[in-house]
Structures are given as structure tokens and as C-alpha cells.
Amino acid sequence: MQLITDIEEITGSRLLVYITGDRRNLETRISSDVIPVIFKHVSNFRNKKISLFLYTPGGITISGFGIINLIREFCDDLNMIIPFRALSTGTLMALGCNSITMSKMGQLSPVDPSINHPLSPTVSLPQNPATKMGVPVNVEDVIGYFELAKSEGGIKSEVGSTEIFKLLSNNVHPVVLGAVNRARNQIKYLAKTLLSYHLTDQDKIDKIVKTLVEERFSHDYIIGRKEAKNELGLNIIDASNDLNEKVLQLFEQYSSILKLNSPYSHEAELATNMEAMPTFYRCIVESTNLTDVYSTQLHIRKIEIQQQGVPVTQYMSTQLGESWGENNDV
After folding, report:
1. How far apart are CA 232 and CA 104, in angstroms?
2. What is the pLDDT of residues 245-264, one digit of tens each?
3. Annotated domain spans of the chain
């Protein structure tokens, strides 16, 4: 809380913290269920400048759009503070901010979405070949397929284009391809709309959107502070040494609470115990004197079974519940 107060004094704004944890095997993403939680926090703000302290690997794009629209209802000037990662949907949200304060290790990324659809292609799980899981279809991968066929495969004619489309349709359901096209158009619309909240130069808006949606080739591409400022033309504010230090100290607090650097495993959680009912903190929204945590409680058991006469240890995990709730003990 002292760090939050210090950052508020340096920036002259109210600070809203939103951390979606990416602890391996306990990941969370930006989703619409956080909107009522954020509303509760910003409803108490009276300062017309808000800084959103965000750490996230991404999430649902339309949810990120809704979060920024909500926060802007309570301020005239919205700044985003990025201690480390604000990827994918996090980057989309940054486009709706008047300014972006990045620490020296701050990261943005492209905003090309992936489509999870009931009709998506499936693959067998390595540990259980009989079980299949859907494979997300990346929007730009589909576009890249057609560009590869034209540039490297020499496909120029309408007949050739029709054939490569048929080949793709035989492997990816046409309904999924339709969803890919809609997702690409939607992400461009959302990005342009968010930028229009504080920019009037349409050419600049188009350049930023084209770069983030089409021109960085990989969804995993990392955009640092200098590129965001000099190449994209975003309003990047370099954090002062004092602010940078406090931003990183605050992030380390959340990293410790959510155990971001400690992958979850049943074995490590139980250690020598046969069973446990631990609670895991997975996502945090925080402002001065108010903390909301998204937590999950599990019942984990260690059992031994016989396989061909040899005892084998296995683990069973049952989810007892998960929800948002105020938790000022965190």
C-alpha cells in the first residue's frame, strides 16, 4: 500500500493495479468477470487521472476493450504503467491510454488473436493419445499461408488461389476460417477505436494498427520501450529512476504473492503429505485500501495403484471452488 501511495504521488494520479498471473499450470487471463471488480475500485476514485498498473500475458480482446471503456468513464486522462509484460490483449488495452509508462524491462506485443472454436483442428495428447484437444488457429498464420503460396509457391492465377483455399478448407473447418476473418476485422476495429480516444491523426492510427496486427510476423514478438516509442509512435513515457524503482518493487510484491516464478505441481504442493486443500491466489485487482483476489481452492490427494504388480504413485485433484473476493490479508 505504501508503494501504491508513493507511485500515486509521483504520477499525480490514482493507481489501479490489475495482475493476471501466468504461474505455469495456474495461469489466468484477462476476462469479463473482472469488470464488476474494477468498477468497485474506480467508483471510489475522484482524481481525473488514473494510472492502470498492468501485468498480463493476454486474454479475451473484447474484455480488454470493455475494461478500458469502463475506466475511461471515471477519468479524463488514462495512463498505463507496464512493469514487465502487457502482451496481446494487454497491448490492445494500452492503445486506449493517453500515455504509457514503461519500465526498462516493459514489454508489448502484436495483437493478432488466436481463435479457439468448437470446430478447430484437434491433436492427441502425448500422455493420452485417445484424448484430443482443440488447437487454436492464429489469424496471421492463415494469412501467412496464402502469402507463402503466392510469393514462394508462385500461385498467381484465380484457379490456383481457389485450389489453395480448398486445401486449407480440407484441414481447417470453413466456419473456423470465417471466424478467423471476423476476428481479424474486429481486432483492427477495436484497436482503431481505442486509439481514436486520444489521437486524431488517422494516418498515424492506421500505421500503429497495421504494425501491431500485420507486420510483426509472430505473436511472440516482443516490443520494447524504444521500439514502441520510435517505430510505433506510441506516447511512451520513460519512467524516472525513482518511479522505475518503485514500479519494479511493487511488481515483485505481486510476483511473490502469486508465485509467478514457481511452476505449480501436485508433487511439490503435497511434498510428504498424502492430501491437502490449498488455496491459490491467481489474479489481483488492488487500489488504496482495497484488495480483490481471484482464488482457487483444490483438494489434492496422493494415491498408489498397482501396475503389473508395481506400486505407482498418482495424484488426484478436485476443484472445490474459485471466485473473486475481497482479501485485505494478502
Report:
1. 17
2. 999 999 999 999 999 999 99
3. 2-109+222-261+281-293, 117-182
Cell numbers for 163, please give them: 485450389
Q: Dihedral sign, CA of 258, 260, 261, 265? A: positive
Cell of 129: 493419445
Each residue's pLDDT tens digit, 90-120: 999 999 999 999 998 999 999 876 767 676 7
C-alpha cell at 125: 495428447
Residue in the structure block whose three cell numbers are 509521483: 10
Q: What is the pTM of this model?
A: 0.87
CB-neighbour burial class of residue 233 (10 A; exposed 0-12, middle 13-18, buried 19+): middle
> Would you call 328 helix, strand, or coil by DSSP?
coil
Estimate the crossing angle of helix 139-151 against helix 158-171, to 10 degrees.
140
Grid coordinates given for 227: 521500439
User: What CA–CA distance (Å, rounded) separates 111 from 178?
Assistant: 19
Confidence of residue 133 (pLDDT cuts 50, 70, 90): confident
CATH fold of the domain at 2-109+222-261+281-293:
2-enoyl-CoA Hydratase; Chain A, domain 1 (3.90.226)
Contact 26, 266 (CB under 8 A): no
CA distance 301 to 318: 9
Dihedral angle over CA of 10, 247, 293, 94, nearest 10: 90
Residue at grid coordinates 486509439: 195
CB neighbours of residue 116 within 10 Å? 12
Note the helical H segments in the chain: 2-11, 35-42, 61-72, 89-95, 139-151, 158-171, 174-196, 202-214, 225-230, 241-258, 266-270
- Measured CA to CA, the distance from residue 45 to residue 163 in angstroms comes to 58
